[in-house]
Specification:
The protein is α/β, with parallel strands linked by helices. Helices cover 39% and strands 15% of the residues. The chain folds into two domains: 155 residues, Aspartate Aminotransferase, domain 1 (Alpha-Beta Complex); 253 residues, 3-Layer(aba) Sandwich (Aspartate Aminotransferase, domain 2), CATH 3.40.640.10. The termini are far apart. About 1% of the residues have low confidence.
């Protein structure tokens, strides 16, 4: 008999004992007991299609059998679980497999740093290294960015409510408009003018840090020309280019790295989430070898290079990145999803955004949350994104069966149609939208 044989169905212990900071259990109020591939099952036996995929940590689905077998084999053989950064067979296998499957085929001669196990650990290490190498304190981030919840990463993050949770000033970050933020104009023109003006008050940064697709920020997509201009400008002013590929890397947009189609060679790359392939905590910072100026132990962490995650990461790389099959599958499924999203958007007058298997339907905050609830009632897990939660965000496992993807999109479409058939939950604003947003921020 296992824990799952008599799993509780009552959420009362969660409400009684767990902090009010909990969030997803409020959106999806059930007790999940089992997960296989693109499906979650709750204690009452109901099956859900997962269009959330652990916020991008489960690109290969739940309990992928080949990765599970590799992990169980390692654990039952008493493989080393914890070792800080001492050498282990698991660690060496990951490093060599990553080099063979990812770095060498792309001619990327990066050194690999394994910091603490989460995405924010990778971001903290990356900006710390950029400041150390350049001697400049300021890092330039972009509007609607999300880079993590520890203080250094939070300073880079744009969302006001998340930043407010810090309780202290967040310094040494300048903010510039992301691609498309100013409408039709190219925001690189704005960036070049400010940094080229010695009286603009904006210091030349140690680095630019960005997501090529801003996932939490609302599925905002940077075009390849915009990315190329930013990279060229960074080189001209001696600033490093850091790509945070934590949520949209590891195949989410098709190729392993989201920046590949733009032909970028970032100075530093942050990876986490689906790097382990199995939902185990794991992160990495990739850097040009000449930037590897750390002294031994200068940046460390008790759980850096988590060995079980090294095992599943290596297995995932061998399983899914020995050829171009997964990339082709993602592109095919992305076309299917894009078509359905375009149809929903056209029917209800909603903008649609995305690349690969990350898609966004911009409905407004009240409707987006209502759509997420209506989808859950129909057996579909899907979250919202954007500064006000105004975007319904598609994030399924990359390996989802085409039929299950279509079934999930049917459920989503039914939820969208049902919500748009209701009267609007929000009264029309009497003041102009921009004024209303400012008033909301200051509590007017």
């Amino acid at each position: 008999m296992t824990l799952l044989d008599h799993a509780p169905t009552d959420l009362a212990p969660v409400r009684r004992l767990e902090s009010e900071v909990r969030s997803y259990v409020r959106s999806f109020p059930t007790v999940f007991t089992k997960a296989v591939g693109p499906h979650l099952f709750d204690a009452r036996g109901r099956r859900y299609i997962d269009f959330f995929a652990g916020a991008g940590a489960l690109n290969y689905g739940h309990n992928e059998p080949h990765l599970k077998a590799a992990l169980l084999e390692y654990l039952t053989a008493d493989g080393v679980t914890h070792s800080l950064d001492m050498a282990t067979a698991a660690r060496i296998r990951f490093l060599e497999t990553f080099e063979r499957r990812v770095l060498l085929p792309r001619d990327l001669p990066y050194k690999v740093m394994l910091p603490g196990p989460t995405g924010t650990n990778a971001v903290e290490a990356a900006v710390k290294l950029a400041r150390k190498v350049t001697g400049r304190p300021t890092v330039l981030a972009f509007t609607n960015a999300f880079h993590g919840m520890t203080l250094g990463s939070l300073a880079l993050t744009g969302n006001a409510s998340k930043r407010a949770g810090a309780g202290v000033p967040l310094h040494h970050v300048a903010r510039m408009p992301f691609a498309g933020y100013l409408g039709e104009g190219d925001t690189i023109d704005h960036l070049e003018r400010l940094l080229g003006d010695p009286s603009s008050g904006v210091d030349v940064p140690a680095a630019f840090i960005l997501e090529t697709v801003q996932a939490e920020g609302g599925v905002n997509v940077a075009s390849d020309p915009w990315l190329k201009r930013l990279a060229a400008f960074a080189r001209r002013i001696g600033a490093l280019l850091i790509v945070d590929d934590i949520q949209v890397g590891c195949g989410r947009t098709g190729p392993f790295f989201s920046f590949e189609p733009a032909g970028l060679r970032p100075d530093i790359v942050c990876l986490s989430k689906s790097l382990s392939g199995y939902g185990l905590p794991f992160s990495a910072v990739l850097m040009r070898s000449e930037l590897d100026q750390w002294s031994p132990g200068e940046h460390n962490g008790t759980f850096r290079g988590f060995n079980p995650a090294c095992v599943t990461a290596a297995a995932a790389l061998d399983r899914f990145w020995s050829d171009g099959a997964l990339t082709a599958d993602v592109q095919r499924r992305a076309a299917l999803a894009a078509g359905r999203f375009e149809a929903m958007g056209a029917r209800h007058g909603c903008p649609v955004r995305g690349r690969g298997l990350i898609r966004g339907l911009v409905t407004g905050p009240a409707r987006a949350s209502a759509i997420s609830r209506a989808a859950f009632e129909r057996g579909l897990i899907i979250e919202t994104a954007g500064p006000e939660g105004e975007v319904v965000k598609l994030l399924p496992p990359l390996t989802i069966d085409d039929g299950v993807l279509a079934e999930g999109l049917d459920r989503l479409e039914a939820a969208v149609d049902a919500v748009f058939d209701r009267p609007p939950a929000e009264a029309p604003r009497e003041m102009p939208e921009v004024t209303a947003r400012i008033a909301a921020r200051v509590g007017a």
